UniProtKB/TrEMBL annotation:
<dbReference type="InterPro" id="IPR016040">
    <property type="entry name" value="NAD(P)-bd_dom"/>
</dbReference>
<dbReference type="InterPro" id="IPR051606">
    <property type="entry name" value="Polyketide_Oxido-like"/>
</dbReference>
<dbReference type="InterPro" id="IPR036291">
    <property type="entry name" value="NAD(P)-bd_dom_sf"/>
</dbReference>
<feature type="domain" description="NAD(P)-binding">
    <location>
        <begin position="7"/>
        <end position="174"/>
    </location>
</feature>
<dbReference type="Pfam" id="PF13460">
    <property type="entry name" value="NAD_binding_10"/>
</dbReference>
<protein>
    <recommendedName>
        <fullName>NAD(P)-binding domain-containing protein</fullName>
    </recommendedName>
</protein>
<dbReference type="GO" id="GO:0016646">
    <property type="term" value="F:oxidoreductase activity, acting on the CH-NH group of donors, NAD or NADP as acceptor"/>
</dbReference>
Length: 215
């Protein structure tokens, strides 16, 4: 499979990159600064931005899948991930790839019929710009043209470089409700999140929908 990965130098992107390469996929790793991408078999580094529509069409030509592992909040002079969505949809229609997005946990429900995580009183104020930006992206994906095949993977409540964990080789899959274990913990390590993400590429089970993973 030929994969184009935006955000290849980030926490989630770096682990998805490693997982995809370990399975023999060809990956084009894209970032604004690719100097941190070490040379590896199967990897091509491309410096660029998903906010450059011409670049997006060019770099995704002949791609089987295009993965987005970038922050949702405003970057690059105020542009946020949502602003790049129209160009990604246009490129998907032209080049025929599947679109996969590393999402956020804030848009998950705390329980069936309950509020979103971001709307609970306990949700930290400082995380709301990122969480709300990713929720907007999910809404846009749900309105995508029918010919655009996409999936969006929400992590659990605890996920990031501050809690990398160790690879276990296992994970549970849910839908729109936050997953927690018997002790109320909602977490997953970076390697196991990447495992679940690339499993979806290799064995598609979630077409045009969001799912979540956790231990």
């Amino acid at each position: 499979m030929r994969i184009v990965l935006f955000g290849a130098t980030g926490y989630a992107g770096g682990r998805i990159l490693a997982e995809a390469l370990s399975r023999g996929h060809e990956v084009v790793g894209v970032a604004r600064d690719v100097s941190g991408l070490a040379e590896r078999r199967g990897l091509t580094a491309r410096a660029g931005s998903m906010h450059d529509a011409d670049f997006v069409v060019d770099v995704t030509r002949d791609a089987d899948a295009v993965l987005i592992a970038t922050p949702g909040r405003p970057l690059e002079g105020g542009k946020k991930l949502l602003d790049a969505v129209p160009a990604l949809f246009d490129a998907a229609r032209k080049n025929g790839f599947r679109l996969g997005v590393v999402g956020g946990a804030g848009s998950l429900r705390v329980a069936e019929g309950g509020p979103r995580v971001i709307d609970t009183p306990e949700f930290p104020e400082e995380f709301k710009p990122e969480a709300s930006s990713h929720a907007e992206v999910l809404d846009a994906l749900r309105e995508a043209p029918q010919e655009v095949d996409w999936f969006y993977v929400s992590p659990p409540a605890v996920f990031g470089s501050y809690a990398p964990g160790e690879r276990t080789g296992g994970y549970r899959v849910g839908g729109d409700v936050l997953l927690s274990d018997a002790d109320g913990r909602s977490t997953i390590g970076g390697d196991d999140y990447a495992l679940a993400f690339v499993d979806e590429l290799d064995r598609p089970a979630h077409r045009r929908t969001r799912f979540t993973v956790a231990y």
